[in-house]
Design a protein that fits this description.
Layout lengths: L2 E2 L14 E4 L2 H10 L5 H4 L10 H4 L20 E9 L8 E13 L3 E12 L5 E12 L1 E2 L4 E2 L18 E6 L4 H9 L9 H6 L9 H16 L7 E8 L8 E12 L2 E10 L2 E12 L1
Parallel strand pairs: 1-7
Antiparallel strand pairs: 2-4, 3-6, 3-10, 4-5, 4-8, 5-6, 9-11, 10-13, 11-12, 12-13
Helix pairs in contact: 1-4
């Protein structure tokens, strides 16, 4: 039986406080190094890799859920899906402002999903740099009927993935990966850094940050189908399917789904052997 909790409707569409972030060349380069990114412009800090977009918005990531989710269960939240929509790349010298809001929630057979929308804007001009949609999952929680809106759907392209991929990229998760990624990303959650805390949480040990795995897939997709040019990526989305661990060898497989209005959509997934760790991957690339 699921635990029944009432989520606070007064928190729906309530924007969080603004979070400000100044982008430096050093921080861009640190993030690229922490995700084993081989793309030269990322490594030099000339431009942000796709998933670097989470860094300026990190403090706004779960803040909106505090106004909706009962504190008794807040610690149960896990990252379900992450969906970036890019208006332009992040560059050194940018001064960015991020905010988030809960746009809805619903109960599924195994738990409840909370849907969050983030915006990241140029502080000086007010123009959107990117928008982000994510779901937070609460296993074993019944939040009642659906409220508000869901995040954009991520098409799984199941039949397409039965064919041979167009491109592939290999990744290795280093033994010290989480200790490099935590400061580079600003994510100090202890299940990624402390073996005992991870085991107390029911995990076999330290797990890799899901967004680090997503960042690896990001440079793999860029290198495989976009000439390593981050300015061409318009959308990048995944579902976090399984935990990844230090020492894992991963492979990102990419398929071409179609082209419309000058944008080619690619489906991808990241696997560890036969285990899919990132599923429902979508990358929209300008031609």
């Amino acid at each position: 039986m699921a635990d029944v909790f009432e989520f606070d409707r007064d928190g729906l569409n309530l924007w969080s406080d603004e979070e400000r972030f100044e982008v430096t060349r050093e921080r861009l380069a640190e993030y690229a190094a922490a995700t084993n990114d081989p793309i030269a412009a990322h490594r030099a800090g000339d431009i942000g890799s796709p998933v670097f977009a989470i860094v300026p918005a990190f403090d706004a990531l779960m803040a909106p859920a505090v106004d909706v989710v009962p504190m008794d269960i807040f610690g149960r939240i896990t990252h379900g899906e992450q969906d970036f929509h890019f208006h332009r790349p992040i560059e050194p010298g940018d001064r960015l402002v991020s905010q988030g809001r809960v746009i809805g929630w619903e109960t599924k057979s195994t738990g409840s999903l909370v849907y969050i929308h983030l915006t990241c804007k140029d502080e000086e001009t007010g123009e959107l740099v990117n928008e982000q949609y994510l779901s937070g999952f609460f296993r074993g929680v019944d939040a009642g009927p659906k409220v508000g809106e869901a995040i954009p759907r991520i098409e799984p392209y199941t039949e397409l993935k039965a064919s041979s991929p167009l491109a592939e990229a290999a990744h290795h998760v280093d033994d010290d990966q989480t200790f490099r990624y935590a400061p580079a990303s600003g994510d100090p959650v202890p299940i990624h850094l402390d073996e005992e805390v991870a085991k107390d949480a029911g995990l076999p040990g330290i797990i890799a940050h899901g967004l680090c795995t997503m960042a690896m897939a990001g440079w793999g997709v860029l290198a495989g189908v976009a000439d390593s040019d981050v300015s061409r990526i318009k959308r990048f989305a995944v579902r976090f399917a399984k935990f990844v661990f230090p020492g894992d060898d991963l492979d990102t497989r990419i398929w071409r789904a179609g082209t419309e209005n000058g944008i080619t959509t690619y489906a991808f997934e990241t696997v560890r052997g036969s285990d899919v760790v990132l599923s429902n991957g979508i990358a929209e690339i300008a031609n």
